[in-house]
Amino acid sequence: MALFDADKIVMVAEADALAGRDTQMLVPEAHFVTGNPLKPPFPQQMAQIMVGMGCFWGAERVFWQAPGIFTTAVGYASGFTPNPTYEEVCSGRTGHNEVVLAVFDPELTSYEKMLAVFWENHDPTQGMRQGNDVGTQYRSAIYCFDESQAAVAKASRDVYGIRLRAAGLGGITTEIIAAPTFYYAEEYHQQYLAKVPGGYCGLGGTGVK
């Protein structure tokens, strides 16, 4: 979804980021696949995971297909520009990552299983890219909602890193930080591959479980 540009693999400085806007993106009330709400409030028992793993179209699909999922949404996070547009994010001048927010039922699945979906469906060793998609918005990331999630995420990174190295792959470059503000992406991005089944998907794992 992005042609190679050396400037796009360097994180923009906050002082140089686009100004953005106060207006939030309008999105559908219901998830195109599950029919559940796309925005909070979510049922009290639900938990959340937010990750970046390359182009968010394919990333969102692997999560809405996973057992125990209540809803998913795509958006932008971990940058400087409030309420950015897709074109602004692709410019490399917002600092944002393309991310998936997945809401799941802990009685039907677990945070650990959600992390397995994350690790196994992209290559977390590639830095500011995923395959042919190059840019800071394609970086691997786990954004944690509490200290417990952070501890589990880091432990899973360490275990998976050993397995990746044993398979001859490089070190993990995944960003693991506290969950930043999630800005919903435009309506047409939400559940894109359900609406356009033959649409672009550059997502691919390493084959390491």
What's the pLDDT, averaged over the residues?
Answer: 96
Radius of gyration: 16 Å
Secondary structure tally, helices? 5
Q: Could you give the order of the helices and strands?
A: EHEHEHEEEHEEH
Broad structural category: alpha+beta
Strand order of the largest sheet: 7-6-1-3-2-8
Low-pLDDT ranges: none
Shape by Cα distribution = globular
As a percent range, the share of helical residues equals 10-25%
How many strand segments?
A: 8
| Strand content bin | 15-25%
Biggest sheet architecture: 6 strands, mixed
Termini Cα gap: 27 Å
Structure description:
The chain is α+β, with helices and mostly antiparallel strands and 209 residues long. It is built from 5 helices and 8 strands. A 6-stranded mixed beta sheet has the order 7-6-1-3-2-8, covered by helices on one side. A two-stranded antiparallel ribbon has the order 4-5. Helix 3 runs parallel beside helix 4. The model has no long low-confidence stretch (mean pLDDT 96).
